[in-house]
Amino acid sequence: MQTEDIKVSSRSNPSQRIIALGIVFAFLYWASSIVMTLLLAVLLAYFLDPVVNVLAKLHIPRSIGALFALLAMTSIVGGLGYLLVIRADQFVADWPRYSTVLRNDITVLDRKLAVFEKQVEAIAPQEEKGRPPLRVAETTRPVRDFLFRGVGSLYSVLMVGTFLPFMVFFMLAAKPRIWQATMELFPVDERARVREALEQVSVVLRSYVAGNALVALILILTSWGFFMAIHLENPLLLGCVSGLLNLVPYLGAPLAWLPPFLVGITQWNSIGPFLGVATMLSGLHIFGLNVLMPAIVGRRVHLNALAVTISLLFWGWLWGAVGLILAIPITATIKVICDHVEGFEPVGQWLGA
User: What counts of helices (H) and strands (E) characterise the chain?
Assistant: First the structure.
């Protein structure tokens, strides 16, 4: 009997790749809380790693250095949060005054819309005037849906807040062992390329976090100074909120208008100050995202505008606000991996073209 040699190909066909990609996306969607927590921990660990390395050079154990870096970051964030809470209490105390003016403006707008609707009905065709209005059956229960949606959001927040500090600490403290174990997963002849890719990922993620923090600080201080110059109430709180909202790509400018507009309705009686605030904040948005971000972060990330836009749309749709934060680091990491994996170099070139 003759034996036939059967060659088994390890290459996957396009349909198998599509199925595998669909499984990955399904996992990213259904396990979003776990994946987001892990990615945020990786991002913070890369950002705090230089501090731990400096402490290690001073002969401080990595576990103690990681704990010190984590506590220092938590103290800074907690202190800033405390200052914002104090300012927010003052804003809440003044809210009745803001809400009264806002309610009056909404009433006036509602009356104008009612008059406009009557004018439209007056010029409508006669056969449409006698037609009864269509009624859509209520098929949802808004209270129940809101409660269940709130429970899901609360679960995600608790998941991140509970596990994130511990994951960051373990990643920082055990980095040398994790690095060595990761290298051993690859053949000896490929470890140099893997090491280079991981170092580039470290630079990209660290530059992204540090660059965004610096740009946010510049926008916050500038907004704070501008609101103080125009004598707007609660300038520090408004500067922090507007400065952070201005970091949101594309939608950041109109979102940054809302806090000063809400406070300004009790101080301004004309449209001029509103236009001035909108112009100033839009200019800060353009300057921050088109001048500061490319100068501080863009040289290390190396992503083109189309890739950034697509990544923001996709990850924002998949994970919401956290997806917008993680979109650029994820895409930049994918680019670095593609640049160092044979056969995927064109994808990396396209992302950075």
Answer: 16, 0
